[in-house]
Specification:
Four copies of one chain form a homotetramer. By secondary structure, chain A is an all-alpha fold. Chain A contains eight helices and no strands. Chain B binds a DNA duplex (21 and 21 nucleotides) through helix 3.
Chain lengths: 170, 170, 170, 170
Amino acid sequence: MATRIKLLKAARECLLEKGSHAASIKTIAKMANVNHGLVHHYFGSKQGLFVELLRLHFDTLLLDQPKDFESDKELNAYVLKKMVPNARLFVEFRALSYQMPDLAKELAGNLRKLTMMIGALMGIDDGATRSLVTAAIFGLAMHSSIDPLMPVSDSLVELHRIFKHRNLVE
Amino acid sequence: MATRIKLLKAARECLLEKGSHAASIKTIAKMANVNHGLVHHYFGSKQGLFVELLRLHFDTLLLDQPKDFESDKELNAYVLKKMVPNARLFVEFRALSYQMPDLAKELAGNLRKLTMMIGALMGIDDGATRSLVTAAIFGLAMHSSIDPLMPVSDSLVELHRIFKHRNLVE
Amino acid sequence: MATRIKLLKAARECLLEKGSHAASIKTIAKMANVNHGLVHHYFGSKQGLFVELLRLHFDTLLLDQPKDFESDKELNAYVLKKMVPNARLFVEFRALSYQMPDLAKELAGNLRKLTMMIGALMGIDDGATRSLVTAAIFGLAMHSSIDPLMPVSDSLVELHRIFKHRNLVE
Amino acid sequence: MATRIKLLKAARECLLEKGSHAASIKTIAKMANVNHGLVHHYFGSKQGLFVELLRLHFDTLLLDQPKDFESDKELNAYVLKKMVPNARLFVEFRALSYQMPDLAKELAGNLRKLTMMIGALMGIDDGATRSLVTAAIFGLAMHSSIDPLMPVSDSLVELHRIFKHRNLVE
DNA sequence: TATGAATGAGCATTCATTCAT
DNA sequence: CATGAATGAATGCTCATTCAT
């Protein structure tokens, strides 16, 4: 596997497993079985690595989007498997973004894209509601990293049920 | 003002304004106009400071809880003013908690308490739903630190509207 | 018990149990159940405490000296019980003495006194030999703190046997 | 000269000249004219540097051992020139070993080896006696750092004389 | 006497980054 | 492409000492 890809994969893994504070260049390089100097060779800086990871990762995610789900169950499973871990990664990027202006910009742009995608997935076209649903998914992702016993799956089912029928209300 | 309080206030301010990665002992002490050695004098360690801040802060928040709101508008205003900034603080603690086991424990406990409180505030007694609403608020708080233009207020109104009437659905 | 004495006892205990590098003022004060500020109140400085301890300790030791032993066994027991632990304390003082000129002076003086005392104890009047016997005892004390299985007692018996009859040689 | 070697030499020099309490990483690095970060680059930690120094130093010493001496004078000169300074280094390691468990282990092992070597050098095969002679040499080394006027050379001659003929006694 | 707040220097260690090879 | 030596700033933390109370 190419060195670039090894580093990007290791960076993602490190952020998710150890958190942003432990994601040093040397730690990531060690996880990738790669010399630490190559981070600068390929990405210019630590921030460069993370910006690239963010772009690549969320571009892929946005392209990957399946159009139709045969059932609500399938949709929930997709969100649980795809969106929740990605939201966790996002949370780590957010922590880093205070020190990394380029990452901060990229983050804001991708947050909007993800919000649109989640809205499309769940059939929501109102802005505030879309933000709300995205926020809920991100929040659940974050909470599950604080308290692993959190009933993320149940909450997602409830989230879907409620938003599906929210227009019937009132 | 007592030095302890100065440090606790500065720690909160620093986390919210500069993020967990910038919240070094010396930075916090400088913001508090206090000698950095006093952090160890009063709290034993950096983790000690944060654990104390977390406890104090959320104990106060939980006590502070108003019983009844005259209107939905008031409830929304309360959540916007109180819960959202506190949720932001929580997000910073979460980033730190990977390196700070005591903080991690404290965090999990307080997350449950906050979830119960938010459930009570919004009249929700189902566990999964309670988690969902809390997660949504935390997610909104986090997003607003990524994209300040995020319509947090509108989303909260929508959140409240939907959950108030969710039982009418189906 | 008077605070002074408590501190002196704790200082000795700390040096012997934890070594000179761990013998901080706060650690000693904690072991004495005494406020750390009192070290400066009574002894002026950390060095002052150690100088006083050294003086008091070895003055007492030198006064304590029993004149006659009924048997060689008794003499050996005395050396093992009294001289060896004191030699260990001496070793810790030596480590500190590099940073503490007053302690260094006091140390040199007491080393001579101890050498004389040990010489008297063992019936040795030659300077070089006296130094040699003292050095052997100090070395055994030090080695026993490196390797607790060291046969200190046996070596002391041998030491005594040899030096008692050294004049018969040649 | 290679940086590693510079650091090892400086560490030895620093321990012997300034004592274990002054042997900080920055002081050692300054003495070696080397960036302090390189201590961790090469040895992982301060303890790592000292463990390496101990191993290297005493392995070399043990290999270096000359088989036969033409006269007692030569043997005495060898002990004075080789063993005494090394024993001094050992004394400094002992002071550090309370805080450094790996160094403590290494120390105990090397003490046994040195004891065997000294025993061989002086033709002593009894365990307790071997310990005694080694302890005497270590004690003399330590005393000479307390009181430079100590007649180390004379004591060594006496040590040799006595132990050479100890079997004639009784 | 006794307390504990306060200070500033120093400690080992980590880190992103640079760069010669 | 790849390596690892080198750098200097920053990190959390410990310490002896001072001093107001």
